[in-house]
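REQUEST ID: PR-0412
SUBMITTED BY: lab tech R.K.
PRIORITY: routine
TASK: structure prediction, single protein chain
INPUT:
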Amino acid sequence: MNAHGKKYRGASERRQLGTPYAATKALDLVKQMAFAKFDESVEVAIRLGVDPRHADQVVRGTVVLPAGTGKTMRVLVIAVGPKAQEATDAGADFVGTEYLAKIKEGWLDFDVLIATPDQMGQLGQLGRVLGPRGLMPNPKAGTVTFDVTKAVKESKGGKIEFRVDKGGNVHAPIGKVSFTPEQLQSNFTALMETIMRAKPSAAKGVYIRNVAVSSSMGPGVTVDTTPYR
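STATUS: complete
OUTPUT:
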C-alpha cells in the first residue's frame, strides 16, 4: 500500500525521481507541486561530506535571507537598563528579565531569544527547556550580544540559524510557496553560499553531497550540485 495520498502522488508525477535539476527549475517544480490549502514553507535539505562527531567538522552558522522567511518572527530580548530600551526601540516583541520566570512556568510564545552577555548566567538554568527547542542564545549565532539593535533587526528581517545534524545533514527553510521564483532563488543562493563558506578545513572529499528542495507537504526535488563542487 502506498503511504502517500492521491494529491502527493499526483504532484510527484511532475518531477523525474532522482533526476537532478538546476536550482531555478527545482524551486519552480516545488511551487507547482505544492498542494496543501495553507502557504507551505519551502525547505532545503543538504547532505554534507562531514563527520559531525568531530568538533572540527561541525557546520553551523546564520544567514540573513534577502527575501525574508515569510514568517513574522516573535523576538524576546533578555536585557536591562539602556539595552532593554534599545531592544524595545529596535522592535523586539518582548523585553525584560521578568520573562525568565515565565519561561520557567512553560511560556514559550517566541521564535528567537536574544540576550546580552551579562544576562547569560541567569539563562543557564533554563538550558533544559531552551536547548532542545533550539532557543538557547549563542554567541556564534549572534544572539548573545550587546549590539541588541542589530540582533533584533536581523532576526525580524530574515535571519535563520543552521546546524548540521548527527547524520551530516543541514535542514533550513528558505521561504514560502507564495514567494516569487526570484525570491526563493535569492534565498537559496544566500544559504548555499553561506554553507560553502562554512566548510571546515578538516572536511575531506566532496563537501556538498546532495541537495533537495521541497514544500512542507510536497515531494522533494533533487538539485544539481555541480555548481557547488
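NOTES: Strands lie at 41-48, 60-64, 75-78, 94-95, 112-115, 159-163, 169-176, 208-215, 221-223.
REVIEWED BY: pending
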